[in-house]
Amino acid sequence: MDPSISIKNLKLSFGAVEVLHDLNLDIGKGEFLVLLGSSGCGKSTLLNCIAGLLDVTDGQIHIGGQNVTWEEPSKRGIGMVFQSYALYPQMTVEGNLAFGLKNAKIPKPEIKERIARAAKTLQMEPLLKRKPAALSGGQRQRVAIGRALVRDVDVFLFDEPLSNLDAKLRADLRVEIKQLHQTLGNTMIYVTHDQIEAMTLADRIAIMRGGSILQLDTPKEIYNRPATKYVAEFIGSPTMNFLDGRIEGGAAPRFTSDVASFDLAGYEFTPQGPQAGDAWFGIRPEHIIVGPEAAHSPFQLEGQVELVEPLGSDTLARVTSGGQRLWVRMDGQADITPGQTLPLGLTPALANIFDKTTEARL
Question: Would you tell me the Gene Ontology cellular component terms (predicted)?
Answer without folding.
Answer: ATP-binding cassette (ABC) transporter complex, substrate-binding subunit-containing
